[in-house]
Amino acid sequence: MEKHANILYVQDPRDDNAGHFAYIKDLSRLVSSQLNKYRHKKYFCDRCLHYFSSSERLQSHTTDCEKMNDCSIRLPSEDDKWLEFKNHTNKEQLPFIVYADLECVLRRTEPAEREDASYTYQQHEV
After folding, report:
1. C-alpha distance from residue 81 to each of 71, 73, 75, 84 (Å)
2. For residues 44 and 27, is the Cβ–Cβ distance under 8 A?
3. 37 neighbors 31 (Cβ within 8 angstroms)
4. Strand, coil or helix: what is 43?
5. Type and span of the H or E element at 119
6. CA 66, 57, 73: angle at the middle one, nearest 5?
7. How many other CB atoms are there within 10 angstroms of residue 58's CB atom?
8. Do residues 107 and 122 make contact, with C-beta atoms less than 8 angstroms apart?
9. Residue 125 CB partners (closer than 8 Å, separation 6+)
10. Which residues pair with 10 in a beta bridge?
11. 3-state secondary structure of 126
């Protein structure tokens, strides 16, 4: 019998390197509200994440999905676990490049006679 657990990684917004894992008890409850505005439950296949409107359709799909998506996972060895780009001569060349040196001065402007809510008080001069 295959053991399967759905987990969710929640990242700490204040620290990119911190976070925690949470167990997803019911994937359908977590995701169904994002798929439709009506409160109809969606049933998800744990193997391919397709969703269905009824549990009967999910059951018929599951029998086919288990036969079709039977694959083995091969992880890289310790020596080959890093992927690196080495052939720098084959990089895509940029179509153009722009070098610009702009200097800008802020000049004060006189306020208009009208007392508007917003007005210009500085002008950029290049």
Report:
1. 21, 14, 8, 10
2. yes
3. no
4. strand
5. none
6. 20
7. 19
8. yes
9. 104, 105, 106, 107
10. 20
11. coil
Interatomic CA distance for residues 46 and 35, integer angstroms? 17
Q: What is the pLDDT of residue 56?
A: 92
Give residue 35's pLDDT.
80
In DSSP terms, which residues pair with 123 in a beta bridge? 107
Q: What is the DSSP string of 53-113?
A: SSHHHHHHHHHHHHHHT-----PPPSTT-------GGGSPPPS---------EEEE-PPPS
Element (H, E) at 62: helix 55-68
The one-digit pLDDT tens for each residue of the chain (126 residues) are 467 788 888 888 888 788 889 999 888 888 877 887 777 788 888 888 888 988 899 999 888 887 776 666 677 888 888 878 888 888 877 777 778 777 788 888 877 666 667 777 888 887
| pLDDT reported for residue 71 | 66
User: Rounded to an integer, what distance in angstroms lies between the CA atom of residue 93 and that of residue 112?
Assistant: 51
Rg of the chain taking only CA atoms, in angstroms:
29
State how far the alpha carbon of 82 is from the alpha carbons of 79, 86, 90, 123, in Å.
8, 12, 20, 53
Q: Are the CB atoms for 6 and 14 separated by under 8 Å? A: no
